[in-house]
Amino acid sequence: MTPIMHHLTVPRTARYVTLGEVEGAEEIWFLLHGYSMLASGFLSWFEPAARAGRLLVAPEGLSRAYFVENGMRRVGASWMTKEDREAEIEDYLRYLDLLADRLLAGVSERPRIEVHGFSQGTATACRWVAYGKHRVDRLALWGGGVPPDLDFTRFRSSLGAAPLVLLAGRRDRYVGEPEIERESARLREHGVPFELRRHEAGHRVAAEALRELDA
Description:
The structure is a single chain. With 215 residues, the protein is of the alpha/beta class. It has one domain (16-213): Alpha/Beta hydrolase fold, catalytic domain (Rossmann fold, 3-Layer(aba) Sandwich). Helices cover 31% and strands 25% of the residues. It is built from six helices and nine strands; from the N terminus they run E-E-H-E-E-E-H-E-H-E-H-E-H-E-H. It has helices at 39-44, 85-104, 120-131, 152-159, 177-189, 207-213; strands at residues 16-19, 27-32, 54-59, 63-69, 72-78, 112-118, 138-142, 164-169, 195-199. The strands form two sheets. A seven-stranded mixed β-sheet has the order 1-3-2-6-7-8-9. It has a two-stranded antiparallel ribbon with strand order 4-5. The termini are far apart. 35% of the residues are buried. The mean pLDDT is 96.
């Protein structure tokens, strides 16, 4: 007899962190963290962008695990792994759509929507823009790029006139100049307009670059 793999969709409790008020929000920024991070710590990187009328929302990935950092064990989250990846992608796309539905239900007029993805969260952000049900007004990718398996025709169509901004740190040990050049060439090849901005920090959301982006 051969074992057969099955799937069962179950209710799941997800958590997210906000900064700002939902009621009366003119803008909502969805902030998608990187691998092994938690939403609360990631949201703190965006505090320079907090202001009246803007709601910052950091959803946390559905998969948590223990990670070792500087000899200490800590808890972090991730959006997916290569194991059963298609189901995990479907799960987080559904999760992000439900979260956006909840937040937008509390706003009388449609706010401006931005999606910021960092590192692993850049792939999540791109897939959500391409396959989610909510239109975005800007997509910012920090320290990462568009996943190689994404349907570029659909991605380009879903972006529409929304600007795509790539933000790359000059001291990023994970995403160097060769990776930036390859990603830029790939986007140009597929006819996806984008702006490349460099900052002086490493693999992170740099406060000064965030202020310049928000200017």
